[in-house]
Specification:
Radius of gyration of chain A: 26 Å
CATH superfamily of the largest domain in chain B: P-loop containing nucleotide triphosphate hydrolases
Number of domains of chain B: 3
CATH architecture of the largest domain in chain A: 3-Layer(aba) Sandwich
Strand order of the largest sheet of chain B: 2-3-4-5-6-1-7
Strand content of chain A: 5-15%
Shape of chain B: globular
Keywords (chain B): DNA replication, Nucleus
Distance between the termini of chain A: 79 Å
Helix content of chain B: 40-55%
CATH topology of the largest domain in chain B: Rossmann fold
Helix content of chain A: 55-70%
CATH architecture of the largest domain in chain B: 3-Layer(aba) Sandwich
Order of helices and strands of chain A: HHHHEHEHHEHEHEHEHHHHEHHHHHH
Distance between the termini of chain B: 55 Å
Largest sheet of chain B: 7 strands, mixed
Number of strands of chain A: 7
Number of domains of chain A: 4
InterPro entries (chain B): AAA+_ATPase, DNA_pol3_clamp-load_cplx_C, DNA_Rep/Repair_Clamp_Loader, P-loop_NTPase
CATH class of the largest domain in chain B: Alpha Beta
Radius of gyration of chain B: 24 Å
Family (chain B): Belongs to the activator 1 small subunits family.
Shape of chain A: elongated
Strand content of chain B: 5-15%
CATH superfamily of the largest domain in chain A: P-loop containing nucleotide triphosphate hydrolases
Structural class of chain B: alpha/beta
Oligomer: heterodimer
Number of helices of chain A: 20
GO cellular component, one term (chain B): Ctf18 RFC-like complex
Protein name (chain B): Replication factor C subunit 5
Largest sheet of chain A: 5 strands, parallel
Strand order of the largest sheet of chain A: 2-3-4-1-5
């Protein structure tokens, strides 16, 4: 018990044990794991860009105590990862199974679940770990209920949580993750200490992605990482998934052309790593990820087409209808989604200095109206045509 | 006798005639050990389903074509019984959850979990996972899509999903970021002509390039529609020539007639007459959106409508189409559009601001 307070010794012990962990966790088929899971941060230190929140949480781990937590922020900023890493540091891999209950939107989460499963879990007795285990991890005497995507909980379920959180405060802590803190009832929010997770800064996110790509031996052209981050709006998970899909597409082709045995192919890519720069121009078939691959996978509307459409729109809508209609028919036939067209037009026009500010006010109104219509599920072709005509009308006015 | 569309549907990835690089990518994905979840999107008649079936064949071999149809019964939490049809082979399932409307979440949760928790028992099977094809994925409710999120990650060892949608707009972002997006764009007119020429050759019909071109243009780059039109032309005239008229579907004829009527006469009596025709269309199960859209395009194509008036027509069509989605009684909005059109056209003729 003497070294219970000796955090340094414990951290060292935990580190030594976690070294052996990746191999066993990776299991028999590491290649089949999504990268997002494979490279999920395992400790608090690995979580990027959220220094403030991590600082406080780190102090809590050291004190072996925890308030109820509420993490909020845009998707892909590491909310769930942080909580999971925190639990892992507190309880270690063995005890985590008994002490942590994870609930998210894919589970049935109505009122009844909060009443039954959460209450039942919260009411359970604690299993005490062995003395040996306790030397490695703090193992504080409480359980953690992780409610992921908490803003999707019905308000009934949230009200049911209120009293539950207090009654079981002695043995259970709640960690809530959500995108919009405004959708959490005030009584719940006031029972938690809140942490805001900021969208990742470009530099750190890019560094992380580069790390992963190097670890996976994937070749890529210059600017790919930046483009991936750009299309995913700071959502690191999305960026990583897109890159994994891209790696699959080009990498898989690579395996086939080089040799039947995947191991050989992998060593080949490794060797040619240095010649990456030379490979850049050869394009898609060479097995390196190109920027156009990223665009295709993210489903974004290509910038060239936006420019083309915009140049047509700038001519106005009075005598230009047929050309606009032809453009839209073409876009519909190519299968691009209306929401992608909307967002790419939006970012083009709003940041275009040649468009007067007055017009921009009117345009944003149009964009908001059409975004609403798209969410309501209207016919895409008609909506795109109408939107283009209206934009053209304003641009030429 | 099967229709041309079904008879000539390519069975394997090699047999697909256009989007070669897409076929190559699908083939290499199917050959690799690591097959991701896929989301196919593109306009109808572009060949999404054909590509999916061909990919499945590449994954499992001919066994996927032996399909059976089951009717399963699901019970909702409020004890309502839902009957639901599943098309399945030993290796894959095909479902259309939007059939059951608001209860699609129940089906998704129960069915997918059931499939995902059972392992492939057939040792000779080429893949360890089953594929679930979800049609009309953009019609899934938000709840059902949220239910998919975690299932896709948790059970990825036993199940792969292939979602089919017309557009990614209706798919929530978390699903989009978990799938590999496959865009299938519509074939170009020369590509359609090419397919039609091949079809003619196979059926040993006389090939008429000019007719093929016209069909390709009229079909709006929808290959299925083009093939159906092609077959219809040859069925009606044993000896078609370059000038043979292509019979449009009768509902399109009716809508065109409505368009011409309301341009010619703008009176309350005409609205009443139109109502009968609109009801006629609706009772024949033509979706209201389709009616409105076609009516709008027919109106815009008429020579009486000046270019400056066209954006206005489109604007109101889009406005009332939105209303159709939100409202419950579609006929109101269709009629409202007709009345609105008469108003703005009249205003234009008188030279008034509308």
């Amino acid at each position: 018990m003497a070294n219970f307070f000796d955090n340094k010794a414990r951290a060292a012990a935990a580190a030594s044990s976690s070294k052996s962990k990746p191999s066993e966790l990776a299991g028999p088929t590491p290649a089949l794991l999504p990268w997002v899971e494979k490279y999920r941060p395992r400790s608090l230190e690995e979580v990027k860009s959220q220094d403030h929140a991590i600082d406080i949480l780190r102090r809590m781990v050291n004190a072996s105590n925890l308030p109820n937590l509420l993490c909020y922020g845009p998707p892909g900023t590491g909310k769930t990862s942080t909580i999971l890493a925190l639990c892992r540091e507190l309880f270690g891999p063995e005890l985590m199974k008994h002490r942590v209950l994870e609930l998210n939107a894919s589970d049935e989460r109505g009122l009844s679940v909060v009443r039954e499963r959460v209450k039942q879990f919260a009411g359970q007795h604690l299993v005490n770990p062995s003395q040996q285990y306790r030397e490695k991890y703090p193992c504080p005497p409480f359980k953690v209920v992780l409610l992921d995507e908490a803003d999707q909980l019905t308000s009934d379920a949230q009200s049911a949580l209120r009293r539950t959180m207090e009654i079981h405060a002695r043995t259970t802590r709640f960690a809530l993750c959500c995108n919009y803190v405004s959708r959490i009832l005030d009584p719940i929010a006031s029972r938690c200490s809140k942490y805001r997770f900021r969208a990742l800064e470009g530099g750190q996110a890019a560094a992380r992605i580069e790390e992963i790509l190097t670890a996976e031996n994937v070749k890529y052209q210059q600017g790919v990482i930046e483009r991936a981050l750009q299309v995913s709006d700071g959502d690191l998970r999305k960026a990583i998934t897109i890159l994994q899909s891209a790696a699959r597409l080009v990498g898989v082709g690579n395996l086939e052309s080089n040799s039947r045995a995947p191991k050989n192919a992998r060593s080949v890519t490794e060797d040619s790593d240095e010649e990456m720069e030379d490979h850049d121009q050869t394009g898609l078939s060479s097995g390196s990820i190109s920027i156009s691959d990223i665009d295709e996978l993210a489903g974004t509307f290509p910038p060239e087409s936006t420019d083309k459409l915009l140049s047509v729109l700038k001519k106005g809508n009075t005598s230009n209808y047929n050309r606009i209609a032809a453009e839209i028919t073409d876009i519909t036939a190519s299968g691009y989604a209306a929401n992608e067209l909307l967002s790419s037009l939006y970012s083009k026009i709003v940041f275009d200095d040649l468009v007067e500010t007055k017009k921009k006010y009117k345009l944003t109104q149009i964009f908001s109206e059409f975004d609403k219509r798209l969410v309501d599920g209207v016919d895409e072709e008609l909506v795109m045509l109408d939107m283009s005509c209206q934009i053209a009308g304003i641009l030429a006015a | 006798m099967a229709l041309l569309v079904d008879k000539l549907r390519p069975r394997s990835l090699d047999a697909l005639t256009y989007h070669k690089d897409l076929s190559d990518r699908l083939a290499s994905l199917a050959a690799s050990a690591d097959f991701p979840h896929l989301l196919f999107y593109g306009p109808s008649g572009a060949g999404k389903k054909t590509r999916i079936l061909a990919t499945l064949r590449a994954l499992y071999g001919g066994g996927v074509e032996k399909i059976k149809i089951d009717a399963r019964i699901f019970t909702t939490s409020s004890n309502r019984k839902l009957e639901f049809n599943i098309v399945s082979s030993v290796y894959h399932l095909e479902i259309t959850p939007s059939d059951v409307g608001n209860y699609d979440r129940v089906v998704i949760q129960e069915l997918l979990k059931e499939v995902a928790q059972t392992q492939q028992v057939d040792l000779s099977a080429k893949q360890r996972f089953k594929v679930v094809v979800i049609n009309e994925a953009d019609g899934l409710s938000r709840d059902a899509q949220a239910a998919l999120r975690r299932t896709m990650e948790k059970y990825s060892a036993n199940v792969r999903l292939i979602l089919v949608a017309n557009s990614t707009a209706g798919i929530i972002a978390p699903i989009r970021s978990r799938t590999l997006l496959v865009r299938v764009s519509a074939p170009t007119q020369p590509e359609i002509c090419d397919v039609l020429a091949k079809a003619a050759k196979k059926e040993s019909w006389k090939a008429i390039p000019a007719l093929n071109e016209r069909i390709a243009r009229e079909s709006g780059r929808n290959l299925r529609k083009a093939l159906l039109m092609f077959e219809a032309v040859y069925a009606q005239n044993p000896e078609p020539s370059e000038k043979t008229p292509i019979p449009p579907p009768d509902w399109e004829l009716l809508i065109e007639q409505i368009a011409r009527d309301i341009v010619r006469e703008r009176t309350p009596a005409m609205i009443l007459a139109t109502r009968a025709k609109l009801y006629d269309l609706l009772t024949h199960c033509i979706p209201a959106t389709m009616v409105l859209k076609t009516l709008c395009f027919k109106l815009v194509a008429l020579p009486e409508i000046d270019d400056s008036l066209k954006p206005e027509v489109v604007r109101w069509a889009s406005f009332y189409e939105h209303r159709i989605r939100l409202g419950s009684k579609v006929i109101f909005h269709l009629e409202a559009f007709v009345a609105k059109f008469m108003r703005i056209f009249e205003g234009y003729l008188v030279g008034m601001d509308f």
